[in-house]
Amino acid sequence: MTLLPDVLAEVDFGSASSHGRLAEQSWMVRLRRGEDWVIVAIGLRRHAADRLVEQITDLLADRPGEVS
């Protein structure tokens, strides 16, 4: 059995100018496992991006007593 690295949710600042967004709505949320990644949300305000990362992290966390 090969163990894969954990999936991490992270907030990053994207490009506002190329999409006509305001700078405060240029945050994105990305899921990463090793060198692989996928962007799951763009155009967020920082608070919303941080909250989404918290929710994803909670969802992905191992919880005692739960089957994974």
Question: What would your notes on this structure say?
Answer:
The chain has one domain. By secondary structure, it is an alpha+beta fold. The protein has 1 helix and 3 strands. The chain is flat.
Descriptive tags:
single chain, 68 residues, alpha+beta, three-stranded antiparallel β-sheet, 1 helix, 3 strands, 22% helix, 32% strand
What is the topological layout?
Blueprint: E1 8-13, E2 27-33, E3 36-44, H1 46-60
Antiparallel strand pairs: 1-2, 2-3
Number of domains: 1
> Strand order of the main beta sheet, please?
1-2-3
Principal-axis shape: flat
Helical residue percent band: 10-25%
Unreliable stretches covering 5 or more consecutive residues: none
The termini sit apart by 15 Å
Strand count, sense and barrel status of the largest sheet are: 3 strands, antiparallel
Query: How many DSSP-defined strands?
Result: 3
What would you say about this model in short?
The protein is 22% helix and 32% strand. It contains 1 helix and 3 strands, in the order E-E-E-H.
